[in-house]
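TICKET: design request
STATUS: open
ATTACHED STRUCTURE:
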């Protein structure tokens, strides 16, 4: 579990470095991740699918910063939007790496122990939150067909159908959190996990990349 905690920390560190959309941090992180050990075994198809699922969010960033740039003209706004889009894609890439290299049975207790102690303890709410988080992530990635089919069987306007599907998803997550069902797999096919000897090396590399990017960003703030 210690290695899984380290992997969670590495992803959070990297995310914190790039989500501020610092051009230097993003520019350094892109080639650094492409040089990560075990790259040929990376699930690029999953990453591309996740990127595609978020296409409308990327478009909204481009429109928002292009039409209402914070500073400068439209070109500067579009450049900032592009930087933020690449930063978000890097975070998605890191999450895909995390869930590919570590099973949910490793990640849930790791995150739960960080947030609120061991399962069954007085602070066990952290375990429930962690389980809900990873179940929601898996449903978002792998159960799109089931969600669309459910929405298609409902009546009413689009808003009512979306609200009904949201409530249905919450009920599914609550059912999955029931102690009697706690060891059952999530809805849909379980995520394949690649366990190999490179996991520790990759985890260290991700943490190093995050620290370097964060250091460059912090240095820019100090000198700026």
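STATUS: resolved
RESOLUTION: sequence designed for all positions
ATTACHED SEQUENCE:
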């Amino acid at each position: 579990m210690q290695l899984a905690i380290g992997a969670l920390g590495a992803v959070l560190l990297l995310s914190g470095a790039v989500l501020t959309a610092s051009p230097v941090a993003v520019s350094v992180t892109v080639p650094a991740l492409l040089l990560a050990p075990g790259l040929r075994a990376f699930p690029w198809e999953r990453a591309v699918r996740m990127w595609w699922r978020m296409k409308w969010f990327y478009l909204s960033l481009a429109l928002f910063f292009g039409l209402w740039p914070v500073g400068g003209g439209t070109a500067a706004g579009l450049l900032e939007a592009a930087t933020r889009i690449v930063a978000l894609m890097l975070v998605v890439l890191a999450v895909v790496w995390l869930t590919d290299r570590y099973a949910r049975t490793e990640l849930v207790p790791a995150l739960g122990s960080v947030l609120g102690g061991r399962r069954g303890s007085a602070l066990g709410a952290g375990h429930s939150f962690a389980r809900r988080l990873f179940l929601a992530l898996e449903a978002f990635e792998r159960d799109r067909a089931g969600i669309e089919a459910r929405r298609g069987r409902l009546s009413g306007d689009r808003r009512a159908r979306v609200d009904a599907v949201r409530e249905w998803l919450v009920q599914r997550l609550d059912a999955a959190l029931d102690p009697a069902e706690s060891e059952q797999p999530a809805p849909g096919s379980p995520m394949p996990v690649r366990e190999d000897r490179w996991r520790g090396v990759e985890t260290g590399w991700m943490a190093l990349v995050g620290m370097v990017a964060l250091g460059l960003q912090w240095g820019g703030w100090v000198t700026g």
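CLOSING REMARK: DSSP finds ten helices and no strands in the chain. Residues 179-190 have pLDDT under 50 and may be disordered.
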